[in-house]
Design goal:
It holds the Pfam family Methyltransf_11. The chain has 209 residues and is an alpha/beta fold. The protein has seven helices and nine strands. The protein is globular and about 45 Å long. It binds S-adenosylmethionine.
Length: 209
C-alpha cells in the first residue's frame, strides 16, 4: 500500500466532517462548471467519499467512480446505492481496466496533486473519452502550492501531510494539448470570492477534438 492510499484510508473517518475550504469550494466549482453541459456516461476519478458523485449521478445515466482508498470508497458506498453508480477501487497510475467503454465526461477533483506524472494519466483520460467528450480538472491552485499549501489533516499524533506534487498551469495545458484536448475554460476560485487574495482553485474544462 502506498503512502497516499494509507493517508486517505486514515483521513476517510474525518474527511466529510473536517473544516476544509478546498473541498467545499471545489464542490461549487464542479457544479458551476458542469451544470450547463449534458453527459450520459461519466467517469469520476478520485471520487473519495462521494462529495461530487451525489451530484453527478443526478445528471448522468451512469457513473463509474474510481478511488485508490478502500476507506474513502466505503464512505461513498454508504451514501450511494443507486444501480447506475459503479464504484471501483483502483490506482489510476496503473492500466485503466475500468475504462473499457468510452465516456462523455471524465472528471478529476483534487486528485492530480497526488499524481507525479501528469501526462500518462491525462493520456488515459483522453483515451477514455468519446470525441466531443469533456475533461474536467479542479485542483488546489499551483500558486497556493508555491506558498506551501498541501493536503493535510490532524491525527492523534499530529498533522499528517499527504504526498503531493506541484503541477504548473503550463504542465496541465501541455499535457492536455499533447492528447488532443482543447481548452474550453480556465477559472480561478478565490476564498469568499476575494480576487485580491491568492486563488484557492484552478479549474480547467477541456473537450476532446
Ligand atoms: C482530496 S481527495 C478528493 C476526493 C473527492 N474528489 C473530493 O473532491 O472530495 C483525493 C482522492 O484521490 C484519491 N487518489 C489519490 N491518488 C490516487 C490514485 N493514484 N488512484 C486513484 N485515486 C487516487 C484519494 O484516495 C482520495 O480519495
Amino acid at each position: 500500500m502506498n503512502s497516499v492510499q494509507q493517508a486517505y484510508n486514515s483521513w476517510a473517518q474525518q474527511y466529510d466532517s473536517n473544516e476544509n475550504k478546498t473541498r467545499d469550494l471545489e464542490a461549487r466549482s464542479l457544479r458551476e462548471t458542469l451544470a450547463p453541459l449534458s453527459f450520459e456516461r461519466c467517469l469520476e476519478i478520485g471520487c473519495g467519499t462521494g462529495k461530487n458523485t451525489v451530484w453527478l449521478m443526478e445528471k448522468a445515466a451512469s457513473v463509474t467512480a474510481v478511488d485508490l482508498s478502500e476507506e474513502m470508497l466505503g464512505k461513498a458506498r454508504a451514501k450511494i446505492t443507486a444501480a447506475h453508480v459503479q464504484f471501483v477501487q483502483a490506482d489510476i497510475t496503473q492500466p485503466w481496466s475500468f475504462a473499457a467503454t468510452q465516456f462523455d465526461l471524465v472528471g478529476f477533483s483534487l486528485v492530480l496533486e497526488h499524481i507525479e506524472q501528469l501526462s500518462p494519466v491525462l493520456k488515459k483520460a483522453a483515451d477514455a473519452l468519446k470525441p466531443g467528450g469533456y475533461l474536467y480538472i479542479s485542483e488546489l491552485h499551483p500558486f497556493k502550492q508555491y506558498n506551501g499549501s498541501k493536503a493535510r489533516f490532524e491525527t492523534e499524533t499530529g498533522t499528517q501531510v499527504v504526498t503531493c506534487f506541484n503541477h504548473h498551469i503550463s504542465d496541465f495545458m501541455d499535457a492536455a494539448k499533447a492528447n488532443g484536448l482543447q481548452l474550453l475554460s480556465l477559472t480561478e476560485y478565490f476564498d469568499e470570492d476575494d480576487r485580491t487574495t491568492i486563488p484557492r482553485l484552478l479549474t480547467l474544462l477541456f473537450q476532446k477534438k
